[in-house]
Specification:
The protein has 212 residues and is an alpha/beta fold. 54% of the residues lie in helices and 11% in strands.
Length: 212
């Protein structure tokens, strides 16, 4: 039996954790979830990004590196909710671009990330879930996490732009792009079937087209 390592990538509120859980349940794979609620800086970060951005991103980087290394030791197939690459190349970079992380802190962070990332085996496939800002806002409001309610649409849009650029240029493994604006894989099993079929086709070497 072939063991796979796939990562579900995407913006805040797009549905990564839900898809990770549903696919893991269906396939009997081990899910590895994002350590959002464990971050002691997160609520402070959303209140004052200038002060807490660097602290929050270093926490996420450390946890993600630990997580990635641990799952590399596993024998079975694994499905991961967000990657270390996104933490660094999208979220931390966006905070630096917006002036919330100083150049000194950014260069220190980037040097640490790039050094350690070279030691990690990349996933067999990244599944990038896309959604418009209105869709993200609706999903964020629906899950009602208090610390997320202050996230601005501008911030989500900036992340979307970085995600689109990142996904088109990522070369460590194949990337499957799934537009989720018109998908509801919680309510409709056929939507989940459609996503899994595309994933399976790619993992088994068949040609695929992005779900747009």
């Amino acid at each position: 039996m072939v063991n796979y390592f796939i990562t579900i990538a995407g913006n805040i509120g797009v549905g990564k954790s839900t898809l990770t859980r549903l696919l893991a349940d269906r396939l009997g794979w081990e899910p590895v979830f994002e350590a959002v609620t464990e971050n002691p800086y997160l609520a402070d970060f959303y209140d004052d990004m200038n002060r807490w951005s660097f602290h929050s991103q270093v926490f996420f980087l450390a946890r993600r590196l630990q997580q990635h290394y641990a799952l590399m030791q596993k024998n079975g197939s694994v499905i991961q909710d967000r990657s270390v690459y996104e933490d660094a190349e999208i979220f931390a970079k966006n905070l630096y671009d917006q002036g919330h992380i100083s150049q000194r802190d950014w260069l220190c962070y980037l040097d640490l990330y790039e050094t350690l990332a070279t030691m990690l085996r990349p996933p067999d496939l990244v599944v990038y879930l896309k959604a418009s800002v209105p869709t993200l806002r609706r999903r964020i409001d629906h899950r009602d996490r208090g610390y997320e309610q202050t996230i601005s649409s501008e911030y989500l849009n900036q992340l979307n732009e970085l995600y689109n650029s990142w996904a088109s240029g990522f070369r460590l493994c194949p990337v499957l792009i799934v537009d989720t604006n018109n998908l509801n894989y919680i309510q409709y099993e056929t939507h989940l079937d459609q996503i899994w079929q595309r994933i399976d086709d790619r993992l088994t070497g068949q040609e695929f087209m992005s779900l747009e």
